Amino acid sequence: xxxxxxxxxxxxxxxxxxxxxxxxxxxxxxxxxxxxxxxxxxxxxxxxxxxxxxxxxxxxxxxxxxxxxxxxxxxxxxxxxxxxxxxxxxxxxxxxxxxxxxxxxxxxxxxxxxxxxxxxxxxxxxxxxxxxxxxxxxxxxxxxxxxxxxxxxxxxxxxxxxxxxxxxxxxxxxxxxxxxxxxxxxxxxxxxxxxxxxxxxxxxxxxxxxxxxxxxxxxxxxxxxxxxxxxxxxxxxxxxxxxxxxxxxxxxxxxxxxxxxxxxxxxxxxxxxxxxxxxxxxxx
Length: 284
Ligand SMILES: C[S@@+](CC[C@H](N)C(=O)[O-])C[C@H]1O[C@@H](n2cnc3c(N)ncnc32)[C@H](O)[C@@H]1O
Ligand SMILES: *[C@@H]1O[C@H](CO)[C@@H](O)[C@H](O)[C@H]1NC(C)=O
Ligand SMILES: *[C@@H]1O[C@H](CO)[C@@H](O)[C@H](O)[C@H]1NC(C)=O
Known about the structure:
CATH superfamily of the largest domain: Vaccinia Virus protein VP39
Number of domains: 2
Bound molecules: S-adenosylmethionine, 2-acetamido-2-deoxy-beta-D-glucopyranose
CATH class of the largest domain: Alpha Beta
Structural class: alpha/beta
CATH topology of the largest domain: Rossmann fold
Helix content: 25-40%
Number of helices: 11
Distance between the termini: 90 Å
Largest sheet: 7 strands, mixed
CATH architecture of the largest domain: 3-Layer(aba) Sandwich
């Protein structure tokens, strides 16, 4: 009968095989070094291009690895996601991209905007830690909201009686009088002009949840106060819900709605800075 342990019975066989492996490995490694990697792949053949092709987009490689090995995918559909991706591509340069919410889509947004600045604002500090544990290079901050979903109707009917909420006066940093203003964000959020703003948080599906009222209002104020050229692209998810829809119509304006798919609306809001709109009595 043939023994399955042929290698153990014939130690010389093992020695020869090992010597072959080591010798072969040495030969190949010398070859690779002298031929400057020709054998491996053409990308690494020119030394200068190695860093260009690999070092500038590690985030995208990370995202591919993440989504290829994860069973949890982002909640937005491909047609919803494509609207934002198309805008990022059409801008044609790295963008300033502000995202309300931190979730399974975050690594995707950050890698779509690789080379740009993508900042995430999240209500739940524990969820921030949870997400950053697996994706430490995401840039995220915790935000405290001063509103609750159940106050949405009151906020909408009363904001015009608070001078600091009026479109002609509205600002964010330190604006405690206007409850719709996100007045306590990290400085870097106020210091940048945002090319794109995605509103897919905070939660707005139970009465005590913060709701998206303040995020929508604040995105409108940021867009109006933009000093750079071009408009601000604002994307709002879950517009099948009443509060999202009504606040969008009040602050982001149907006339600035340029695209949409599924539960996502895309607005392009022109700056009101030094235009006659800056004195208007209403946002829309
Ligand atoms: C409204 S969901 C949408 C997220 C995003 N569109 C996605 O695909 O993941 C995002 C918010 O849900 C909250 N959240 C809490 N637990 C979560 C979980 N296990 N998965 C995703 N989001 C969670 C976070 O506050 C987060 O900002
Ligand atoms: C709307 O979005 C879709 C999907 O990204 C895109 O193909 C289309 O060109 C967009 N339309 C406009 C008017 O931007
Ligand atoms: C504001 O006015 C200045 C000077 O007239 C102009 O250069 C700038 O483009 C304007 N900004 C906007 C956002 O319209």
